[in-house]
Write a structure and sequence with these properties.
Length: about 220
């Protein structure tokens, strides 16, 4: 009876420690662990094209079908911000030895922190590029512009200003390019084309992704 009590107390303590550790884990930790588990079972091939960033990539489940002539590694996760991608770069960017990295991130930075400035968004992009360049000095790094989303129209001008700063910065960086999808997602009168989004006004439907496909294809190696 005494041993059973000890075993029970030990089990309770272990569960308490585990729950405490999970409570302190950074956000998106579980999603990153899923990626790492997938990698442990079947590590992606070298010289693929790495897509990394937020849910606009995460929800592009059939991205490989859009680019059949390329090998795509999709590491979009959650509603991630640039600091999230920076935090997990050792897990979802640096191990893969890609021939090219394509980034979509920054939209959530503005939506989550309404006090953030375009200059601060640019600073985060610089930090991420610096991390990538410490290991991959010469591979192309392409940044997709922050898209105009109907559900975030109140921040449209800040997103556009961020795009302009990021574009000017990347134009001066070797092997780095800015891919403008923003304007292709507008109507001729300059309003957002809401027909290319699903019901949440944030994520794209197949028509929206076909727009991205057409724009991205010439940039892919």
């Amino acid at each position: 009876m005494y041993m059973k009590k000890i075993l029970f107390q030990t089990l309770v303590f272990c569960l308490w420690c585990f729950s405490g550790a999970m409570a302190q884990a950074p956000r998106f930790y579980q999603e990153i662990q899923v990626f790492k588990h997938q990698d442990s079972l079947h590590f992606p091939p070298a010289n693929a094209i790495l897509f990394v960033g937020s849910s606009s990539f995460q929800k592009w489940k059939d991205v490989q079908d859009y680019f059949p002539e390329h090998t795509i590694i999709n590491r979009g996760f959650g509603g991630s911000t640039l600091p999230d991608v920076i935090r997990y770069a050792p897990d979802i960017i640096l191990p893969y030895h890609p021939k090219q990295i394509v980034i979509y991130c920054g939209e959530n930075d503005i939506a989550e922190d309404t006090s953030i400035t375009p200059q601060q968004v640019l600073s985060r992009v610089k930090t991420l590029l610096h991390i990538i360049r410490k290991k991959y000095k010469n591979i192309p790094v392409d940044y997709i512009s922050i898209k105009p989303s109907p559900s975030r129209i109140q921040w449209q001008q800040k997103m556009l200003a961020s795009n302009i700063l990021i574009q000017k910065y990347l134009q001066k960086q070797p092997n780095a390019r800015f891919i403008d999808v923003y304007h292709a997602m507008l109507n001729p009168n300059g309003t957002i084309n809401e027909t290319i989004f699903i019901h949440d006004g944030l994520h794209m439907n197949a028509t929206g992704y076909h727009i991205w496909q057409k724009i991205l294809e010439p940039y892919l190696l």
